[in-house]
UniProtKB/TrEMBL annotation:
This is Lipoprotein. The keyword Signal applies. Keywords: Signal. It comes from the Bacteria. Residues 1-25 form the signal peptide. PROSITE patterns: PROKAR_LIPOPROTEIN.
């Protein structure tokens, strides 16, 4: 996603809106209930820190993660798009018929590995998976704008209770976005110190 200029927002499973563009270019607002005064002025790093401080409100089995995704070369899924099926429409009851087509979504499934850290009771702990499922409904106009692999990202995962299999699910768009280098270095430092706190 970095450098592509894509304006991607998502409505995540918990109802929190995540935007993958600078605050000055936002087409949606960071949820004020989570992040306090004037979310339009928040930077990505402010957003991550405030999200970290609010993470105790996340549903059981859902957690925030920092790290990188890598393509998995073997397994029941390939690293390429395997599913390309129309699966849902996000439209208001009053939406005109000629606007419906743009809201048709496609489901993509990819097998990837995630390595990084996750928040646990306010502290970061090492976390990795052998294989991770992405189940990602994406609006047609955003196809081709999915995040790149092997770059620092921040996001939200939900455990499926199947060992190291984790589902990342977002409605409309990506459930994660690139981190700044400063924030990523801070997170990497926590790998050597599981008691460190990201949300300082």
């Amino acid at each position: 996603m970095r450098g592509r200029g894509a304006t991607l927002c998502l409505l995540a499973a918990l109802g929190a809106v995540i935007c993958a563009v600078p605050a000055s270019a936002l087409s949606c607002r960071y949820p004020e209930a989570f992040y306090g005064a004037d979310p339009d002025t928040q930077t990505k790093d402010d957003y991550v820190r405030r999200f970290a401080m609010a993470h105790r409100d996340l549903a059981q089995g859902t957690f925030l993660v920092w790290g990188v995704f890598e393509k998995v070369k073997s397994g029941p899924f390939t690293h390429e798009v395997e599913a390309d099926a129309r699966f849902a429409r996000w439209v208001d009851p009053g939406t005109a018929a000629d606007e419906v087509k743009a809201d048709v979504t496609y489901t993509y499934r990819r097998a990837i590995r995630f390595s990084g850290v996750r928040l646990n009771n306010g502290s970061a702990e090492p976390f990795s998976t052998r294989q991770t499922i992405i189940n990602l409904p994406v609006r047609e106009q955003f196809i081709g704008s999915l995040p790149a692999f092997d770059e620092p990202v921040f996001g939200m995962m939900r455990s499926l209770g199947q060992g190291d299999w984790v589902e990342i699910r977002a409605d409309l768009c990506d459930a994660y976005f690139p981190l700044s280098e400063t924030m990523y270095q801070k997170v990497r430092a926590c790998l050597a110190d599981p008691d460190c706190t990201i949300a300082d």
